[in-house]
Amino acid sequence: MESSEISAIKRGLSWVELKESLKKEGCPICMIMLNSLEKYFEFLLYEYVLDAAVHKKMLASFGMCNTHTYMLKETEVKIKSDGLNISVLYETLLQKELKLLSRILEPQRKYNKRTFNYYRKEILQKLAANGECPACENQKHSESFYTHEIIRLYKDEEFQKLYENNNVLLCRRHFLYLLNEAPNEEVITYFVNVQKIKLNKLFNNLTNFIQKHDYQSKIEITEDEKKSWQQLLEYSASKKNVNKNGYNEILT
Fold first, then answer.
1. pLDDT (tens digit per residue) in 89-145
2. Which of 34, 64, 78, 107 measures 20 to 30 Å from 118, CA to CA?
3. Res 195 pLDDT > 60
4. How many CB atoms sit inside 10 A of residue 222's CB?
5. Cβ neighbour number for residue 220 with a 10 Å cutoff
6. Rounded to whole angstroms, how far apart are CA atoms 70 and 64?
7. 188: part of which helix (H) or strand (E)?
8. Which phi-psi region, left, alpha or beta, contains residue 216 (left: φ > 0; alpha: ψ -120 to 50)?
9. Mean pLDDT over residues 189-206, rounded?
């Protein structure tokens, strides 16, 4: 068996997805998370809207977070559903909400003001979510797994060739998460050096972009300079629809 075949076996199936994400622009972990979420929402709406375990999680979290709620809605449109799947998924949430709201008013006829206020506070606590958004939970799993895969593969020559390409840039959150999970100084040194090279290039492109807007400048703005401000936004805040809550909970 050739060494390349041995290497491919050691990488595992996750390498296929990681390799594809490294061929695209921006943060590979963000890219994988978005792909994972799209698959999650499709499976959820196609197969699990009646699943008791799913409904239990949804009741605990009172639905999805803001980011994932609208991704779920986009998926419902994408699969050409008229909203029936989401209606079934959220119906029990509305039932729970109405039941709790009705209970808030019950003691008014029985107790004094002090007792009523205590009871109302107890019900309001029950109205607060005590579980995590199911999609955020899915996102955290992807973040953790593929961050550790990147760390594990960092000495692999093919990985390094793809990762060091200028189009690939870990967003700030996932870069900090990677550093937090790095097992030793050698790993940290490699990723910090690569990140510095890429951020210096981004800084130069951004600076040139600004300077070339001067009315006296005769030099044409390059394509890399034109998109530098967008790359900086993505580096700072991650890709659109990537919820930061999952990352923050992992890091802390």
1. 999 999 998 988 887 776 555 666 667 777 777 778 888 888 899 999 999 999 999
2. 64
3. yes
4. 13
5. 7
6. 9
7. helix 185-211
8. alpha
9. 97
| Tokens read off for 242 | 């990537």
| pLDDT tier for residue 246 given thresholds of 50, 70 and 90 | low
Phi-psi region of 98 (alpha: psi -120 to 50; beta: other; left: phi over 0): alpha
Comparing CA positions, the residue from 177, 179, 236 lying closest to residue 203 is 236
Structure tokens at 218: 């005769």
What's at 140, amino acid-wise? K
Q: What is the pLDDT of residue 241?
A: 86
Q: If you count them, how many residues does the chain have? A: 252
C-alpha distances in Å from residue 153, one per residue of 25, 113, 188, 193: 20, 63, 13, 16
What is the identity of the amino acid at 151?
A: I
Q: With bands split at pLDDT 50, 70 and 90, how would you rate the model's confidence at 13?
A: confident
Please report, for residues 1, 61, 66, 249, the alpha-carbon distance to residue 135 in angstroms, rounded to integers and kept in the order given.
Answer: 41, 11, 11, 14
Here the tokens at position 135 are 């999609």
Asked if 46 contacts 167 with a C-beta cutoff of 8 angstroms, the reply is: no
Q: Which residue has the tokens 């009315």?
A: 215
Angle between helices 172-181 and 244-251 (to 10 degrees): 20
